[in-house]
Design goal:
By secondary structure, this protein is an alpha+beta fold. Helices cover about 20% and strands about 25% of the residues. The chain binds a DNA duplex (16 and 16 nucleotides) through loops.
DNA sequence: AAGGCAGCCTGTAAGC
DNA sequence: TGCTTACAGGCTGCCT
């Protein structure tokens, strides 16, 4: 499940892979995967890549002709370089053709992923309202206090709300709350400033560690060379039956998602 | 406004 | 053995 560290890993690798290369074309094999902006009357390809950025879990690839490719990997989407796997892999939904017959396949079992082609100026029409980037300096105590004011929802739900913090998903929300020793059911606005500061610090630590380990490969997430990340080996609570201190882990549902927590360590 | 939840989608695994 | 059911969750849209 690609969350911020996985998307950042892919972005870093795409940057290396696509630098100075030209995209010759995009083939699409699944009607709901590709969204083509109405103002885009002709194909934007061939085009060179002038820059990449990440907004939350969205990848933006800016092209020379003032067009942009927006990619969201959904649940099971991955971008994989051609020379590592078969020519038409199973569940291939689209394929970027590069110069010198190189390819980058977009493979997505559950088809929640999307690729948007649009003029750069139209990007906002395709991005939902996104909150602060958790690794930026803007993610600080005063921001979080303001954002949580009057919010009675459980802190776990708030961490996963992209309008408040952009990029966290279920796995990292679980890990962050365990390491910050906060019970996921705690009403968000009831947390003291000391605990919020701890939460912010822990969020940054966990995300940076996960990026360093190239993300978490629990099921489908893979790097651009189709290899796994390593952070799944460092998870302390997600899908565990006992916590690192040996206490039994509780599994509950919050917002339709699985929450794992330790009632002893997390108060 | 905030919050809860169904629905989308397919592979895997458990249950009968 | 083979069928049915539950589960995994990012996001949208609907309802209260």
């Amino acid at each position: 499940m690609p969350e911020l560290p996985e998307v950042q890993t892919i972005l870093n690798e795409l940057e290396k892979e696509l630098k100075d290369k030209q995209i010759e074309g995009l083939d699409c094999y699944h009607s709901r995967t590709l969204i083509w902006d109405k103002e885009l009357t002709a194909t934007p390809f061939p085009a060179k890549i002038i820059g990449l950025e990440r907004h939350g879990k969205f990848i933006l690839i800016h092209l020379t002709n003032e067009n942009t490719i927006i990619i969201h990997l959904g649940m099971t989407g991955k971008l994989v370089r051609d020379n590592t796997i078969a020519n038409h892999p199973k569940h291939e939904r689209a394929c970027f053709r590069l110069s010198e017959k190189e390819k980058i396949h977009f493979i997505d079992i559950r088809t929640f992923g999307k690729i948007v082609l649009c003029p750069t100026k139209n990007i906002p029409a395709y991005l939902p309202e996104l909150g602060v980037e958790p690794l930026s300096e803007d993610f600080n105590l005063s921001y979080l206090q303001k954002a949580l004011k009057g919010r009675k929802a459980p802190i776990k739900n708030i961490l996963m709300d992209q309008k408040i913090i952009a990029g966290l998903g279920n796995i990292y929300a679980n890990e962050i709350l365990y390491r910050a020793k906060i019970n996921p059911e705690t009403p968000a606005s009831s947390l003291s400033s000391q605990r919020l500061s701890k939460l912010i610090k822990t969020t940054k630590t966990v995300l940076n560690e996960a990026i360093e380990k190239n993300g978490t490969s629990i099921s489908d997430y893979r790097r651009i060379d189709d290899k796994k990340g390593e952070f799944q080996n460092f998870l302390q609570i997600y899908q565990k039956t006992s916590c690192p201190k040996g206490h039994p882990v509780q599994k509950i549902k919050q917002g339709g998602r699985s929450t794992y927590f330790c009632p002893v360590c997390q108060k």
